[in-house]
Amino acid sequence: MTEAVLMTSGHIALRKGRHSSAGQIYLVTFTTADRQPHFAPWEVGADAAYWMTEPAQWGTSRLLAWVLMPDHWHGLIELGPGALLPALVQRLKGRTARLLGLAHPALGGIWAAGYHDHALRKEEDLLAAARYLVMNSVRAGLVRSAGRYPFWDAVRL
């Protein structure tokens, strides 16, 4: 497939004309392969959450809030100096897929291709975005209160 075709189709086409900005906060979402509930078993979810939140994973960027659902992940990411969002997401997904594959080989493919991002505008409420994110488990009916769900966290906003 030629580069021109790649730039006009699929996930790459959605990124056309976008750029990463240091200091910008992004709401990022990506799903598991075939929306499989890979993270429903506690052991798998705990491993994934641990590896996804290791500080070294984030370099100059900061993970402000996150939730790992059985079949997807949401995060509020403040991009650091020199960081590029596509590279950061690729590194996060690649590393966790490799480690989860070694620890839990029966899972098969971990992540679906691509991701969705939304750059928060100045007028958007960061606290409201974080609350929306961590309440995913309640809205999905997994728990009655977010505090009972083990796979989320947020820095003090």
Automatic annotation (TrEMBL):
<feature type="domain" description="Transposase IS200-like">
    <location>
        <begin position="21"/>
        <end position="136"/>
    </location>
</feature>
<dbReference type="Pfam" id="PF01797">
    <property type="entry name" value="Y1_Tnp"/>
</dbReference>
<dbReference type="InterPro" id="IPR036515">
    <property type="entry name" value="Transposase_17_sf"/>
</dbReference>
<dbReference type="InterPro" id="IPR002686">
    <property type="entry name" value="Transposase_17"/>
</dbReference>
<protein>
    <submittedName>
        <fullName>Transposase</fullName>
    </submittedName>
</protein>
<dbReference type="InterPro" id="IPR052715">
    <property type="entry name" value="RAYT_transposase"/>
</dbReference>
